[in-house]
Design goal:
Two copies of one chain form a homodimer. Chain A is α/β, with parallel strands linked by helices and 347 residues long. Chain A has two domains: 5-128 and 321-334, 3-Layer(aba) Sandwich (Rossmann fold); 131-316, Dihydrodipicolinate Reductase, domain 2. Helix content of chain A is 29%, strand content 24%. In chain A, the strands form three sheets. In chain A, strands 3-4-2-1-5-6-7 form a seven-stranded mixed β-sheet, with helices on both faces. Chain A has a six-stranded mixed β-sheet with strand order 10-8-12-15-14-13. In chain A, helix 1 links the parallel strand 1 (5-10) and strand 2. In chain A, helix 1 (15-26) packs across helix 8 (318-334). The longest helix of chain A has 17 residues, at 318-334. Chain A is globular. The two termini of chain A are 33 Å apart. The interface between A and B is large, with 57 and 57 residues. Chains A, B: Homodimer.
């Protein structure tokens, strides 16, 4: 590791942390030094990075000395505790948690959508919610051509969105059910194997769960469209990895289906996957491990003259989290936006 | 078996046929004689019905002599072949296939919605598509209070909707994947274990699949609302039994959420399942084997002032097929509508 910048990964042992490491290597991110940080519980373990065994350190007050960039994916409370300290030590933090996303002084960035927002950072840049990123990259190219008026989305979210242990639980639960047993859920609140349930994040007074409100509020912020109407129904399904979404879009004027297909086919970060003859469209197993969000079944909405229906699958750990964070980091380097001379603690 | 009427089940060995038999027994349907019919392939096997071993007969020209009622669930082509012959022999046919559903001379009946339509039958009454029935019983009570203007629905359909063999395939596929193998799908077109895919029924030129068009066209017919706007996205998920649906409703005027909850709580055929404190709502495993469609998460749609969101799970073999057919039969008996003096062959 020579040249480049000093990077720390906070939450290196988690699912997103592991994906971040893999992407830093495969994308040949210009690293000078790489520091792996985690909770004291995970400290001391080693992780192989491009042939080097790196020791995971417990995050501490002096962890951010000489660190240029922190990629944080250790959850909201960890980010709230450490992000300001990292910024105070001179680092820029790209935070994968929800801690700062709706803070008006923190840019919420999807590089395919609002790269310019990253320029205004004051030390922290937030990485959006996974389902929000996947939907955003798929529908923003259409929004640019004709502003979207209303979005109604239903999600099909995989177990891995609830963490690696939830993914394991679905496997062991499936095994037990196939053996005729009745396993008790431990990580997830209800059985997920051969079952599904509405997303179990906390509900607000209107009956929307946090995941749904993230899709609504974060999309408005990323699109810089505070008046955009959105509704979401988020559902956890027994898929191991990659989320799917059925999206109904309403425009002011009719949007020609062929034009929509052409736009998606040429847009960055998405891939048009439609074989109408074979009845083959995006599936989670095909989206797993892919950078692009797979989009298909683009149809004229038969219930509204100005509506379009579309279907997507995307890897929520990759583009929905780690890849988007790395792309933000690459953007900062490319545009020379890493300097934080105007940094202030935003929390 | 004494008193009552002579019933024949066409397709007695299938999943819906089995459910029909169970419901005839548990609901103490007034049977005089019960005849089990199936394809020559299944003929000769015996099925236990309330302690009696009944032999399955191959359906033939003389099968419908002295039969008052045929419950047909052997698929569209079988119904097309035999329904008219049964009617000519003096029987009334309640047909679970799609063969006659959109025939303007054939009533398409959900007893909680349009029982009066059954009175006009000319020998054949069609049982609607399963996802259509489940949605219909859930939203019609609201439609009665204030007409629904537009429906946008996304489905989460279980493997059993594609038949008992598809359900078995999901199990064996899951087992194989858990053992590290890569099984090839045989019944379903793509792997369904730990995966999902858009419903694989044939697509029309507008990109809607047959299942989606059934939801659109059959709902209009059952509701007697030809102008009702509907769009649907149907998705097959790795759930064994019971379908789920995320439904977005638009009305002409705002619909108070509490009123909607009260209506659903009192409506026939549905059960309000909402524990907002415990974040507990309808799930397929809880809907399995239940007569009622479980409805919950009734919310004001944040994207539209006249919108409501709701979520349902229902057993598509029970209320989505067999139970609805039995309820139609019970209605015919109760209203003395079994006579087919005006019968004519409608095909």
């Amino acid at each position: 590791m020579s040249g480049g910048i000093n990077v720390a990964i906070l939450g290196a042992t988690g699912a997103v942390g592991q994906e971040l490491l893999q992407l830093l290597a495969t994308r040949q991110f210009p690293l000078k030094n790489l520091k792996l940080l985690a909770s004291p519980r995970s400290a001391g373990t080693t992780i192989n990075y491009s042939g080097e065994e790196l020791e995971v350190e417990a995050v501490a007050e002096d962890s951010f000395q000489d660190v240029d960039l922190v990629l944080a994916s250790a959850g909201s409370s960890t980010s709230k505790t450490w992000a300001a300290k990292a910024v105070a030590a001179g680092a820029v933090v790209i935070d994968n948690s929800s801690a700062f996303r709706m803070n008006p002084e923190v840019p919420l960035v999807v590089p395919e959508i609002n790269p310019e927002a990253a320029a205004k950072h004051q030390g922290i840049i937030a990485n959006p919610n996974c389902t929000t990123i996947l939907m955003g990259v798929a529908i923003y190219p259409l929004h640019q051509v004709q502003p979207i008026k209303r979005v109604v989305v239903s999600t099909y979210q995989s177990a891995s969105g609830a963490g690696a242990r939830a993914m394991e639980e679905v496997k062991t639960q499936s095994q037990a059910i196939l053996a005729g047993e009745t396993p008790q859920p431990e990580i997830l609140p209800y059985p997920l194997a051969f079952n599904l349930f509405p997303h179990n994040s906390p509900l607000n007074e209107q009956g929307y769960c946090e995941e749904e409100m993230k899709m609504i509020n974060e999309t408005r912020k990323i699109f810089n469209a505070p008046q955009l109407s959105l509704s979401a129904t988020c559902v956890r399904v027994p898929v191991l990895r990659a989320h799917s979404e059925a999206i109904n879009l309403e425009f002011e004027q009719p949007f020609a289906v062929q034009q929509a297909r052409d736009i998606i086919a040429q847009a960055k970060g998405v891939k048009l996957v439609e074989d109408w003859q074979a009845n083959y469209f995006p599936m989670p197993i095909d989206a797993t491990g892919k950078d692009e969000v797979l989009v298909g079944r683009i149809r004229q909405d038969l219930s509204h003259p100005c509506g379009l229906e579309l279907w997507l699958c995307g890897d929520q750990i990759r583009k929905g989290a780690a890849l988007n964070a790395i792309q933000i980091a690459e953007l900062l380097l490319q545009e020379n936006w890493l300097k934080t001379t105007n940094s202030k603690v935003v929390v």
